[in-house]
Amino acid sequence: MPRWYNIVFAGLTWLGRLYGVFFLGLGVVFLYLGGQGLVAFKNGIRAAWSDPTACIIGLLAGVLSLWVGSHLVKNATLAREFAGGRERNDELTRTLAEADKLEDTDPVAARQLLDRYFARDAAKTENRRAELRQRSYHDPEAAVTLRRELEEEVELNARFRKEVLKKWPEDQREF
Fold it and tell me: What is the C-alpha separation between 72 and 83, in angstroms, rounded?
């Protein structure tokens, strides 16, 4: 990937985190003003800004804004996945298209093509994780990256399993 891609996507990642900080601040403001309005209403002030409905909406908007902001600051994965996953997804798309073409004429070759792709991808992932494991002894960023990657994989596997189990008959869902 060209160097300017890395620079642009690193900028996008930090821009996403900046938006996250903005939403965190906005959430704090909404929570503060909603709470102030409810306290004012309880003390007998009946102004528009102390209407309980408006205050509850402000509190809900504050919680939602904090949630969005924390996810943007913590993950900021949209730009990072776009930058890092583009090549892999393009390769996967090409491989799937080629396997689709082969499926009609030679299903065994199509299956072997897919198996080779996924074996290469698994080897790349394992090599990257092995490097992160080695670096994680002295590099906290590598440890955090490895942990995040493993947690995302566990979450993806759990969601996949849940979706697959929904489609299975009841008598096969025991495990």
Answer: 16
User: How far, in Å, CA of 109 to CA of 103, rounded?
Assistant: 8
Summarize pLDDT for 135-147 with one digit per residue, the tens.
Answer: 999 988 889 999 9
**pLDDT grade, residue 76 (50/70/90)?**
low
The residues near 56 (Cβ < 8 Å, ≥ 6 apart) are 34
Contact 69, 24 (CB under 8 A): yes
Distance in angstroms between the alpha carbons of the first and the last residue of the chain:
43
Find out whether 37 and 55 touch, Cβ atoms under 8 Å. Answer: yes
Residues 100 and 107: their CA atoms lie apart, in Å, by 9
Predicted confidence (pLDDT) at residue 88 exceeds the cutoff of 60: no
- Three-state secondary structure readout of the chain: CCHHHHHHHHHHHHHHHHHHHHHHHHHHHHHHHHHHHHHHHHCCCCCHHHCHHHHHHHHHHHHHHHHHHHHHHHCCHHHHHHHHHHHHHHHHHHHHHHHHHHHHHCHHHHHHHHHHHHHHHHHHHHHHHHHHHHHHCCCHHHHHHHHHHHHHHHHHHHHHHHHHHHHCCHHHCCC
